[in-house]
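Running log. JK asked me to keep both predictions on one page so they can be read side by side. First protein, sequence followed by its tokens:
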Amino acid sequence: MKKNNKQRSLLSLVLMCLMAFTNCKMISQEPVKSDIVISKNAKWSEKMALTLMKRHERSYMIDDSKNPKWDYVHGLVLHAIEELNKVQPDPRYAAYVRDYVDTLVDKDGNIKTYELEKYNIDMVVAGRLLFDLYETTKDNRYLVALQTLKKQLEGQPRTNSGGFWHKKIYPNQMWLDGLYMGEPFYAQYTVTFENGKNLDDVAKQFEQIQLHATDPKTGLLYHGWDESKAMPWADKVTGNSPNFWSRALGWYAMALVDALDYFPKDHPKQKELVGYLNTVAAALAKYQDKSGLWYQVTDKMGKEGNYLEASGSSMFTYAFAKGANKGYLPSKYKKLANKAFDGLTKQLIKVDADGTITLTQACQVAGLGGDPYRDGSYEYYVNERKKDNDPKATGPFILAALELNR
């Protein structure tokens, strides 16, 4: 009898250990993404988000990174998935976003791979992912990370006229890209934690780039402006770079519609920013191709080597649609956005057998100066490499699809 009891006890112990081991394995395992099923009837925003999740098991991998890094492309795409989750709630979306933040932000609020002293404004935009997490969890580490990024903006080097340098290594330079990287975060932070006291400074960034980088003839804005006029790419009179790059203009248009979310209608600068949005939208509408899309070099339609480009086109689609939905732009821009979205889905999207989608013809990267040197010439922009489903295209595509309810 005693022997049977001992055997039973031993068996129970073994079973408990096995169950504990199995449970531990189940808890620690990463979610399997290969089982994601994408319905033919799903909206385009869902199709793209689920495609990215199926192809990139962890959210830090969306730009094919092998190791986690704090970066603007993750901030862009995961912000889009956050917005999708508000419209079409799905625990997988929330988990995918949080996985990125919790991989990069440690228990004390330190942001891994981030270096404040570089004053690279690109690194601020991923901070937008922290607001909702802090609001819902009240976990202090998210607040510490938010405060760190705000500290960068407080110390960000500026032009003599008050505009943020793009990076410490690019002195006296403002790039259109930088407006999206810094201003929506800055606006949300000052409204959330400072009762909006710095909204005038947010507006000042747009004022500076609008004042200095706008071409009076076309109404388009040049990719970069060097206040010192010292860079070889800078015009010796204006300080502007030589060409109009659609993605740079797209960053600027998106920055305006997103920053405006935090400007009360009665704020003295609100109408000014809405005016900038109308000016750039009217200029861009003149260069929309009959396909609904825009070219890589915006104003050189049909010139040899130029091509209809996915990221800039997606960004303009989003900015036009959101601008019209919010009442900042006339309703005709919603029609132009739908025409553009038709162009994206009919000309640049490929649908695979498993329901995943690929957005083609996206410029992978472009900049000014640096090493190797980038001169901002027409030939430079049209010869930079392209990448399918580049995050700078997929994020705005999701946002555009959401605004258009497509």
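And the second, directly underneath as requested:
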Amino acid sequence: MCEQCHPAFAPPADSPRHRARLWEIDSQWHCTIIGTCLSLGELKGAATRLKVRMPSARPRAYEIHTGMIHLASRERLVGKALTKLLDRKHAAAINRAKSLVGEDSLAAWWEDGLTRGEVAAACWAAMSHPDATDSLRNRIFGDIHMLSHQVGAAARADLKSIHQLERDKAELEAKVARQQDRLKAEIGKRNAEIRELRQLLDQEAAESRRLAHAAQSAGEMDRLHHTLGEMRHLLEVETAFRQVAEDEARRLQAQARDRDAETDRLERELREMRDELAASESRLAATLSPPTDGVAECGEDCARLDLCGRCILFVGGRNQHLPHFRRLVEEAGGTFTHHDGGFEESMGRLHSLFGRADAVLFPVDSVSHGAHDEVKRLCRRWEKPFVPVRRSGLGAFIRALSTVAGQ
């Protein structure tokens, strides 16, 4: 019998309410709490400090996740350590939830946190609240589960866009091929006509010479000269047609080269979008996808991104993306600082941020030219890594972080 179940350890009836510890919450919700509210790096650190033995010498992310869930309800030391880590990480949300009384107010507070994207902090604060019931905890579990489906739907929409680009590329290549075949056929036809006209001209010239020697009257010679002039004019017209056809051929060839270059650009963009999509799926699946049977399913790439404590300075970008960028950097074991590129903040503050930055990232589509030039100049001066982000979206930011982590 555990010490909480023993009558000697039962709390008095008039004792004040307290927030639930992790081991006091039913183990069916441990997977949701640990997988959503703690990063893989934090779990690794806790397992190392507690000297937890894993089934393998080099445990994968899934083994660490399931191992800590298993021990949270069976080993008091592990449960206390994880509870302390959760309380420290989400202290602000816990303080905001202290004043809430009753399941209804707590449920409304959870819905507000879910709407703002503060899923991890609101999850632990609500799950451990004294007024949390099994019904509310089931509701929180269901909301997080459906959030993972929404993320998957967004990924499928990106895949559909990629497939459409591939179809457009194939249609463009087929169109260029048809134009080239038609152009070759027309040039061949023109060349055949010119050869026939030249042969006819040679024949007419020979006939004219023969008639010139044989003709006895000036009128016959005039007629022959007139015929020869018409043939020459016809040759000039056909030669002009050939020149136009050759010019059209050169124009179409140049157009084909331009379309080949556009096709190459689209292929590069397609590969980059696939890489960004794969990075987004890997990171989002690792942090937001609890399984339906209570056991987390974490892929091979969950632990790939590790910034090893680096400080990331992000210049420019859109404000709605910054909380997500900050969360990704912190989950990867780094720290995140931001400067808006001079829109509202002074450029003097940018100079002060370079002292502690280990790498500088900026989105090329959402930063001013002046800020771009200033960042490059400061990176050369401070000898900091200069990593441009192709777009201001989440996938491009993850790829840029992967570049920093691999340096």
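Observation for JK regarding the second prediction: Residues 1-15, 291-303 have pLDDT under 50 and may be disordered.
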